[in-house]
Specification:
Elements lengths: L5 H4 L3 H22 L1 H10 L20 H6 L15 E4 L9 E4 L1 H17 L7 E4 L8 H12 L2 E3 L6 H11 L3 E4 L1 H14 L10 E4 L6 H11 L2 E8 L4 E7 L6 E3 L4 E6 L13 E7 L10 E7 L1 E2 L11 E2 L4 E2 L4 E3 L2 E3 L1 H9 L4 E12 L2 E10 L1 H4 L3 H19 L4 E5 L14 E3 L4
Parallel strand pairs: 3-4, 3-5, 5-6, 6-7, 18-21, 19-20
Antiparallel strand pairs: 1-2, 7-8, 8-9, 9-14, 10-11, 11-12, 12-15, 13-14, 16-17, 18-19
Amino acid sequence: MRIWDPVNECLSRDELEMLQLTRLRSTLERVCRAVPCYQEKFRDLGIEPGDVSTLQDLAKLPFTTKEDLRLGYPYGMFAVPLREVVRIHSSSGTTGKPTVVGYTRADLNSWTELAARFMTAAGVTDEDIVHVAFGYGLFTGAFGLHYGAERIGASVIPMSSGNTDKQLMIMQDYRSTALVSTPSYALTMADRMEKVGIDPAGLALRVGLFGAEPWSEQMRREIEERLGIVATDNYGLSEVMGPGIAGECLHRRGMHIFEDQFIAEIIDPDSGEVLPPGSVGELVLTTINKEAFPMIRYRTRDITRLHYEPCDCGRTHVRMEKTMGRSDDMLIIKGVNVFPTQIEEVLFQVEGCEPHYQLVVEREGSSDTLEVQVEVNERIFFDEMKKQRAFVDMLQKRLVSTLGVGAKVKLVEPSSMPRHEGKAQRVIDRRNL
């Protein structure tokens, strides 16, 4: 199994932690010298960079949140003069102004190298034709994988998102071997292929690299069966790097976080306390080699767990499980924490359920209700009422067993839900909280 950068990806734990501490101290000096937000945070806590003498001291430092980035809009969080910034990206800004991130030439080189690492781990080689179906623009996703694939030596088709029929035509005619997209869009493509009669066996596709949204193991199996590929997960977020923070190797026992570039912690999302190894909690990331936009203890809001035991692939870096959802997307229904991926796991195990669903949350009086709207195949949707009722009852029992709270199930007609070219919108929350 090929490793792109064996020198850095296979460091011993002692060597890795020594490198992390050295780079952390350098990063702290930089942000305290150049970024007003961190100058104020450190001053308020009476902390100086020199106070960090071990990696355990990281827990004493303040968190960085999305609100900090919004307050610094647009360039207040940059640690270098704007003349040294050669690329600017930003988040979608769906809840206000976007968060703006910058990259120096060295940052772009690091990003490209990290994308090459996880793409190599996923099986991409210089003989592949990589079909990028992420949107190009201010979103970081397409660019990270585009340049990573080029660094490996693969041929890149910068298809961008949308126009599914054209995507499929290009995929057939150009003989694409690797697909880059969101997992939900991969299923949208599979739906369209079935509708127009394209046999996946006739494609050259062999691997898929999917990210940008949480997805379950059941969804992975669905994609693999319907497209005839090996599907791998990768992780990134614009505020920290973009895709290239972590990615699965072909053993697929978690995504390797590139710890020579990032320090990962798991915290209790409510108290902020660092949790012991093996705990489920919110992922917090500190960049230790970025120039333009370093982040200290950035709260990702993604819920996961870290595994430190060695991987059979030979890489030594810690592995993160698939994200189980987000602490800020987590639904609290009658006091119970519910993540969309839990519901997805249940639905994908039931024959007759299609891989398209939405969760509708409402408040009736003082009580919250959860309705799971799920597409089913024609056989079930047009079945007699008695059999439909039994199917709904079975789903509701499975959901309450998994979630610990009841949910109403509504069956909807095949192909009636919107198909997504980017991130799928799974939750409609109608409560006025």
